Sequence to fold (878 residues):
Amino acid sequence: MIAMPLPDAAVLARRADIAAALRHMVRPAHVIDTPASLKAYESDGLTAYRQPPMLVVLPETTAEVSAILKYADDEGIKIVPRGAGTSLSGGALPLADGIVLGMAKFNKVLDIDFDNRCAVVQPGVTNLAITRAVEHRGFYYAPDPSSQIACTIGGNVAENSGGVHCLKYGLTANNILGLEVVLPGGDVVRLGGKHLDSDGYDLMGILTGSEGLLGVVTEVTVRILQKPETARALLIGFPSSEDAGQCVADVISVGIIPGGMEMMDRPAIHAAEDFVHANYPLDVEALLIVELDGPPAEVDALTQRVKSIAENNKASTLRVSQNEQERLLFWAGRKAAFPAVGRISPDYLCMDGTIPRKKLPEVLRGMEELSRKHDLRVANVFHAGDGNLHPLILFDANVGDELERAEAFGADILRLCVKVGGVLTGEHGVGVEKRDLMPEMFSETDLAVQQRMKCAFDAKGLLNPGKVFPTLHRCAELGRMVVHRGQVNFPELPRF
Amino acid sequence: MPEIFAPKSETELAELISGGGPYSIEGLGSRRGLGRLTNSRPTLSLAAFQGVAAYEPEELILEAGTATPLRVVQKLLREKNQMLAFEPPDFSHLWGTSHSGSIGGLLATGLAGPRRIKAGSVRDHVLGVRGVTGRGEIFKAGARVVKNVTGYDMPKLMAGSFGTLAAMTSVTFKVLPAPETEETVLVSVQDDVKAMRVMSNALQSSAEISGAAHVPGEGTYLRFEGIAVSVAARRDRYVSRLTSNCEIISAQQSRLVWAKIRDCKAIAHDAERALWRISVAPMQGAAVAAHVARQSDARYFFDWGGGLLWISLPAASDGRAAFVRSAFKEGHATLFAAPEDLRKRIDVFQPQAPTLAALSKRVKSALDPKGKLNFGRMYAGV
Fold:
């Protein structure tokens, strides 16, 4: 396991006093200090790691957040911000001597401004709730992480969340216009707003994806978009992953940016088909779902172009969704890929690297070799449009050294991703799980530059310490999302 | 003339920064006219960091040395029907230079064109950077893939930082397919307030407008881009619902219209006047213009659906900075081009609230504690 900062005994000894002080800052009932209640906060979506916090506080206003952060800074107490706790990388993992700052009570949509095509919301509003609040006028909020029914916009900002449509519509960072942020020490800053360009340094840019290490977001202004008029999906099977990869490259080369472009390999196709019966072809090595959206005339024309590109790349099966029901069925198997793999294996590790797309065949071949070396199976789902790969390593933690082998396998995969010019994480974040892998990608100087940025925001290092940056004590164990016998937090959420 | 240092490698650059400074950082020098005027000091030229290191159209990435001329990059992209989607403007005529500058300068100034409303700005398309901090450290940040959340997004921080945080040597941009064709609908609108409404309605529809500008006296321009059948379908539907008169401008002419808007050539401005660039909530544009245009001989037009107001004023002794900035509560106004004496006297960039100003100073100190890089170019003391 990855080591977290050692608890400060002096802080722990003052636990009762700290709880009492917090009860002067927020409604007394919003300070949680009983062991049974604290246990509910011990983990996020990365369930391999569990640690009940010292205390939980649930502020309701920016002024309360400011008072808490000032107090924590004065008293040297660590703070771990938390939205819905759906992080897959341990971003909201508590510290034994830290206060979890739960933002769940910031759950209001403050302003919907169709004329300026934006909405102002509190950070505890869920991603999907933003779309729900604006869809009566045909609008939506574009980033759609798979956990969107539960994850909050505050957490999305912290993680710079993406989704299957982000090649065309961007990540969180590309879809927010303004932030109100409380800094460690309690200062409140407003960045951007309803205008398109924020002035000065792009602090909104660096806060987005900073994984709760730089400030606590208390208000978000998001861009809202008119929904595409129509969407259609193509389901295309290929005799090899090389052919599928070339098809993806050709689609982009002719100038088409599909709304979504997803690939699955043979093991993933079979697992998904056995689970949801989406009528996927079972005699192919790679399956591609290409979704085209926009005005009907455009979708018609692009469908023909993609069809001919697929045929030129030896597509062995090709179906175009004829209606919305069929489009959703094409997606059903892909969206069920994680639980489907969970059915065929007691445990799996989910990796999250991005690679240059052209390296896909090389990486898949490398993974086959690694699969033999570690004697474990792997299934691959791939956001093919942007090169974000999710290998799922199948193992059984109750059998011999399979957990250790799976971890070593995962480490080798991430090293391979970096070696071919890719990155450690495309969308799940570094958090705890990939923290000690950072030196695979960044030099000591690169990391020092980033850590100095941390110091500019949080001189005492009290906000979410132990995440993102490796400690001096580097652990050999590498990052992953562990799922034991289907026991994940939020098992009802799709994970793709 | 102050001394010019032109390091040939990152190592030399790091040595110069470690051993000397303060410096003015320069790529091709085309954007000297923007920003606060500072005391004369030696120039650190990044001219040696030139050339496209990687262009992979199917991966949607282009990596180049920061002093690579923008026109070289754009020529390469055009050959593959791709583009920098944020539509880099060419403001050289405003600053009295002869070329559109380098891609490093583009990154450092963070300025986007009309497609900003749909495609985002420079900061939305920068994927990776290399450079040397004010501490003389060679570093990299980001990567060469389009989807990456590993570590802080330092490349975004570099966008619009005016060379005050690091001397950048290399930048990787996300590039995108260029639209196959375009058309513009020029809606006959005389009144600014009504123009905001026309633009907002168009931008709220599913017409996928990629440019929305209003030039008083000419009307409201709305751009449709994409494949031909899509452009035609969206334009037809839009026009069929329109109650005002309009004119359809075909592709070739449309490109000229948007180049004028992009490069701020839609109004008459000259070197004796003060040009302000004001960013506000789009629906606020008309009210801000009405306030500022009470000044005699104001010339202005709107881009970004009303959210970007360009306004040229006679160069009054105080530049009317306080007057201009009192026109809005949320947003910012930049003195974009003006005679030197004016740039010396007034805040070129919108002054920041004290807590934010303090944070900006701490960010500056983190990477450049001794103020060696473009010190004071954005704000006094930063």
